[in-house]
Amino acid sequence: MPLPTSPVIRRARLGAELRQLRRREALTLEQVCDRLGWASTSKLSRIELGQSRPDLADVLDLLDIYQVASPAREALIVIARDAATSRGWWKTLGEMSERQRTYAELEAGAARIVEYQPAVVPGLLQTPAYARLRVAAGALLTPELDVEAEVRARGLRQEVLRRTDPPHYTAVLAEAACDPVDLPVSVWREQLRHLVAVTGLAHVTVRLLPRSATAAGGLHPLTPYSCYAFPDPADPRTVMLEALTTDVRLATVVDVDRYERMTEVLLAAALSPEETVTALARRVGE
């Protein structure tokens, strides 16, 4: 069952709030850790950077030091509980890779997701057969990857689009992402049919970016990316850049605003939702 909030984002939100409170009290990392009896500043630093799941008792101690009173105290405790939770549905599949788990956590709490893919169908829209071929290709560079586990995990992630309160999801696909390349015809035809079918969901939009399309000013993303916005406007909007080894997460307002403007440029150049469905259906026939 998906979580109503995204733990990875709540950790970032909690860390930013705690860092602001520490600075308000004019305390250094060393001074806080000395008062708490923590051996080093690395623990507090990781909490403030949103890099670790916080222990609620530690957060309560920090709130005491920073003299946080109600109702701000209760609000931060709620955020800390969201940030510390480890009972998400992806945890039932322990073999899910860390990279895929990050995306699962972001998707679980998102109110809006926009993805751009220049070469492949996004994970949330992949059929099992297509996903298996994509994951198997990745395993050539990462031999320890459990292909079947990753395919099952991807299927569980896709349930976010069919829950009772799904995020608004938009996929912008470059035309190359809808070319069969070396895929078996049966796999590709099934994938195209699935893309057409999923557009029947009111909250899902697929937009095809033809090769002939020219984005304003010639702007073009160099990498695939995903944008996430959350129900709580205080939770930081986030962009994930997909790279070969380690994906990059951006959360500053300046960075996110740039990618959202890039998305507007791509959407202006893409086929309309109706034209996209027509183009995909024609490809099924071909």
Residue share in β-strands:
5-15%
Q: Indicate the radius of gyration in whole angstroms.
A: 21 Å
The CA-CA distance between the termini, in Å, is: 39 Å
Q: Level of helix content?
A: 40-55%
Q: Report the average pLDDT across residues.
A: 88
Q: Uncertain runs with pLDDT below 50, 5 residues or more?
A: none
Q: What is the H/E string?
A: HHHHHHEHHEHEEEEHH
The largest β sheet comes out as: 6 strands, mixed
Shape: elongated
Strand arrangement, major sheet: 3-2-1-4-5-6
Q: What is the number of strand segments? A: 6
What structural category characterises the helix and strand content? alpha/beta
Task: Explain what the structure shows.
There is one protein chain. The chain is of the alpha/beta class. Strands 3-2-1-4-5-6 form a six-stranded mixed β-sheet. The longest helix is centred in the N-terminal third of the chain and has 18 residues. The model has no long low-confidence stretch (mean pLDDT 88).
Secondary-structure blueprint of this entry?
Elements: H1 7-24, H2 29-36, H3 42-48, H4 56-65, H5 72-84, H6 98-109, E1 112-117, H7 128-139, H8 147-157, E2 168-174, H9 185-198, E3 204-209, E4 225-229, E5 238-241, E6 248-250, H10 253-269, H11 273-285
Parallel strand pairs: 1-2, 2-3
Antiparallel strand pairs: 1-4, 4-5, 5-6
Helix pairs in contact: 1-5, 4-5, 6-8, 7-8, 9-11
List descriptors.
six-stranded mixed β-sheet; 11 helices; alpha/beta; 286 residues; 6 strands; 47% helix
